[in-house]
Amino acid sequence: MFVGIRGLRMIMWTILLVLAILHRASSHGIQPLSRIAIHKATLALDNLAYVKASPTVLGLNGQNTEWVTVEYSSPNPSMDDWIGVFSPANFSASTCPAENPRVYPPLLCSAPIKFQYANYTSPDYKVNGKGSLKLQLINQRSDFSFALFSNGFLNPKLVAVSNTVSFANPNAPVYPCLAQGKQWDEMTVTWTSGYGIDEAEPFVQWGPKGGHQQHSPAVTLTFDRSSVCGAPARTIGWRDPGFIHTSFLKELWLNRVYTYKLGHRLFNSTYVWSQEYQFRASPFPGQNSLQRVVIFGDMGKDEADGSNEYNNFQRGSLNATKQLIKDLKNIDIVFRIGDICYANGYISQWDQFTAQIEPIASAVPYMLASGNHERDWPGTGSFYENNDSGGECGVLAETMFFVPAENRAKYWYSTDYGMFRFCIADSEHDWREGTEQYKFIEHCLASVDRQKQPWLVFLAHRVLGYSSDLSYAVEGSFGEPMAKENLQKLWQKYKVDIAIYGHAHNYERTCPIYENQCTDNEKRYYKGTLKGTIHVVAGGAGASLSPFTTLKTKWSLFRDYDYGFIKLTAFDHSNLLFEYKKSSDGKVYDSFRISRDYRDILACTVDSCPLTTLAS
Predict the structure, then answer these.
(1) Which of 111, 259, 267, 468 has a CA between 20 and 30 Å from the CA of residue 74?
(2) How many Cα atoms within 13 Å fall on the side-chain side of residue 313?
(3) Backbone dihedral angles phi then psi of residue 438, each to the nearest 5 degrees
(4) Is-contact 179 402, C-beta < 8 A?
(5) pLDDT of 255 strictly over 70
(6) For the residues 164-190, what does the mean pLDDT come to?
(7) More confident: 310 or 349
(8) Which Gene3D superfamilies match (predicted)?
């Protein structure tokens, strides 16, 4: 049958669209734990098989992370045998809640917190049936056991279960995360423990380094299975989150170094302490000093022991974390713009994530934006009606991390850091003109004093600006549909310098742009009036990468299909350095500078000043 040129073009575009949709699904990830049909597991215990774990008691010297050796044997080994790590240890006691559409509860209804093939480090396992693994455990408020399964992931058979392993104090306060408060001289500290308010009083002991220490009480939050919105968060992914505590450290002296410890006063008058941490207080709005900001999205989490290695989310995440830790003395604040750990309803993974970032988040403010994998769930008010959060519907991110929002269920807020004003949008709630969030965005952009805070940065998870990601290109929108039409007049009117997004798992930088047109042909050094907003996609911090379209756009200056993150350095009110660094080596692969005076910000550009007449 004859097909015309127009018909061939339509066929090609249809193929591209399907490929883009399939790649978006794979790059945005299948939670590794979801590969395991634990609800179909059956008992096949074999007296000749065994699993042994040692040491049995961890954290004797106060550590919250330890390595465990797991040895195992099976009389009938196969290539698809695997080891699952369960916590609590008595995982077979769990049953699925009634909402799970099965006639009767399965034997197992708790997903493992991590897993690995039995032959991962034992190539002769298939021959001799013996193997061992080195696995890293973190303190997660409960004990652990290790189980040997046969018959793969889809119809697993439980062959043997190990002895129990536990931390000396599983309830200990762990994994502090700093965040800026609602005032510039306030720092918040959020952490997790196993102590409820009926067992102990949580607080932070803190003060200037080497100076007087004081106690500040903490508020305590938690949630139960009914708080989340659907499976797997309410079913096989559920795990008790413990208690989340937040303390507010107020009236800080600018740039002073403070030390702090997490504490719990038990009702028998004994105390439980964390190790000591330290941070530097934030500069006041407008302060003229060196200020260094790191920004990225979509990092996910990784396991140092190589477990859960399925969807290739992994290596970029650890590399990015290691680079930030290595350069921590040159970082003042971090913005993590959505798709935080890709737990996707497997709640144990949030603890794994907070443990991974602890060296960073305990030392500098770690500010979040909400992404689709934290918030989106049908019928819960999210702007996008999909299942990306795995039933979490924002509860985990909103409870486990503090942000200075008026309402954490509406995850938009502004925060000032010295010469920077950051306006953080919640792309998972409606941002169109006339909405509550649109009014917030305009107020955030309009209310900054650019003479004192010249560097105005807009942040969001989804690409509300410009992107050459294949999935956006085949839609013809090169960004979220409707976003530019609604928001770019605000960016232009209030002269936003840089807008940074995640969601697309790659790196891209545009020229200064307005209404699809470059307002400046310079690529590396912008002197004087910027005339437009530079849009940056920084979604390649760890999650599996997504490809670009082959179409060339005039506004796209630099693309990189690799893992990396952004660093902004404000030297003073007139000079800003932008750098894109790769996670693999920490080296700079793209950069530009902005140099200007206050009068350059005041200067009118296209649509940035109100129309005037001779009469006015």
Answers:
(1) 111
(2) 26
(3) -60, -40
(4) yes
(5) yes
(6) 98
(7) 349
(8) 3.60.21.10, Purple acid phosphatase-like, N-terminal (2.60.40.380)
